[in-house]
Amino acid sequence: MGGRPVVPPLVRDEQPPGYWTVSADPAEHTRRGIYILVRRNYRFPLFDVYDWPVNAVSAPSRDVTTVAPQALWLMNNRTAVRQAEQFAARLFKDSVGREGWNAPDFGPGQPGWLGSKSGRHAGWAKRMANTNAPAGFDAPIGAVLTHGSSSVLWKVPVSDPAGVASLRGGLWNVRHLGRSGVWKLWKNDRDLLAEGILQDASGSSANPLALSSGARNGASLSSIAYSPGDTFRLEILEGDFVGVHWTITTSTRVADLMADFTLISNPTDSGWQYGESLENGGGTAGPAQPPLTPIDFALEACVDRAWKLAFARKPTSGELQESISLVESLERSGDKLDASVDLPGSVSRERGAALAKFCLSLFNLHEFSYVD
After folding, report:
1. How does pLDDT run across 249-283, given as a tens digit for each residue?
2. Which of 291, 286, 289 is nearest to 275 (CA)?
3. Which of 31, 47, 85, 209 could form a disulfide with 203 if both were Cys (CB 3.0 to 4.6 A apart)?
4. SS3 for 163?
5. For 165-225, what is the HEC assignment?
6. In the chain, where the domains are located
């Protein structure tokens, strides 16, 4: 909001006499009309066809007309077409690009359990393959990740007999930013079995810091007595992304954090609970962010967002379905969006062109012209 006046590009026939120095930053070209430079002897073409008063004299009121040149300008003018193309690109990014567990880092569609008390960036996820491969991140496909502060707990089923458990696993920093933090391994949230400091030099996904390195008083983590209903909790207190390997072997089962990871329920049927740190109460994380429909096919979200931005309201069910049908029909024409328009990598140029034409049709609706 605010800033210097904007001078968007115009075709030669529309340019005013004298200078019309276009703003150097292309992002400025699609700002709201209130920021467009006003010259006393020149009316911007869009404002001219929509009854903008003459700039050189005062006007007691604004005329209101509905004439053919208005629709023709919005359908054919290069400025309107360019705005529709940029609007379409924004819709793809706004409607889908932000969705997912820590989408700015791991890309759209990354599923996971969202954190609560430590923020949505916390929680737990199992790395999936998508269009985003962040540089410098040690996060192989299939690895279980968290962002502290958080914890994960496993509860011995009450139907299991008492016995001795072996706890094995390791931790590593997903990215190396010079951060470090404490980790703790608990039994029944009361008995501290192990603790340590995790830092960049501690290990990697291929060679993580072993949980056994922090065993208290030299005790072994391979022979921990347990009873039915007992819990084991791994607490991560570093405020950054941490990779986790953890396996608990009892006399009757093997609980593997990576193999058992699920978004169906929390706690899970296999006894895992993805949760908050003890300092935040130790409760469950959530809600779950499920895998998303590929961005190429996320039309409903784009159309819904378009109506909210253009008309300050949601589309009716009928408007939504008709809009989706229109975009799908336009896509079959085979037209491609200009390469200069920045789209998310998995969005086809044909889909981008179709959505841009849809946006242009919204500009031509009477409701758009006079929405507050």
Report:
1. 999 999 999 999 999 999 999 999 999 999 999 99
2. 286
3. 209
4. strand
5. EEEEEEEEECCCCCCCEEEEEEECCCEEEEEEEECHHHCCCCCCEEHHHHEHHHCCCCCEE
6. 1-65, 69-99+292-372, 111-289
Backbone angles phi, psi at 142, to 5 degrees: 95, -15
Both tokens of 210, joined, read: 């072993």
Contact call for residues 130 and 246 (beta carbons, < 8 A): no
| Residue given tokens 């830092």 in the structure block | 199
Contacts 24+ apart (CB under 8 A), 97-100: 97/295, 97/344, 99/289, 99/292, 100/289, 100/292
Residues 132-159 pLDDT 10s: 677 889 999 999 999 989 999 999 999 9
The CATH architecture of the domain made up of 111-289 is Sandwich (2.60)
Please state whether 178 falls in left (phi above 0), alpha (psi between -120 and 50) or beta. Answer: left
Structure pTM? 0.59
Beta bridge partners, 246, equal 169
Q: What pLDDT, in 10s, does the model give residues 163-172?
A: 999 999 999 9
- Cα-Cα-Cα-Cα torsion 343, 345, 350, 353, nearest 10 degrees, comes to 0
Which pLDDT does position 283 carry in this prediction?
Answer: 92
What digits encode the pLDDT tens for the residues 304-335? 889 988 888 889 999 999 999 999 999 999 89
Q: 273 in helix, strand or coil?
A: strand
246 token code pair: 């953890």
Produce one character per residue of 104-123: b if its CB has 16 or more CB atoms within 10 Å, e if not.
ebbbbbbbbbbbbebeebbb
AA identity, residue 53:
P
Cα–Cα distance for residue pair 52/49, rounded to 1 Å: 7
